[in-house]
Design goal:
Number of helices: 0
Largest sheet: 2 strands, antiparallel
Structural class: mainly beta
Number of domains: 1
Shape: elongated
Number of strands: 4
Distance between the termini: 14 Å
Strand order of the largest sheet: 1-4
């Protein structure tokens, strides 16, 4: 549900703005991952999930 319970560190709802799965079917590792829309540049050393979360 992405809603926190009473003992959660975050007390507000979380919104997943963007999610992308990077694996062997669409990449070779290591790779430089770039997403200019969210100003993300990083080296992925293996299969990864890229998530932009709004709090």
């Amino acid at each position: 549900m992405l809603s926190p319970n009473s003992t959660s560190f975050y007390q507000e709802d979380i919104l997943i703005e963007y999610i992308e799965f990077v694996d062997d079917s669409n990449a070779s590792f290591p790779m430089t991952y770039t997403n200019l829309s969210y100003d993300i540049v990083d080296t992925l050393k293996g299969p990864s999930i890229v998530v932009v979360v709004l709090l």
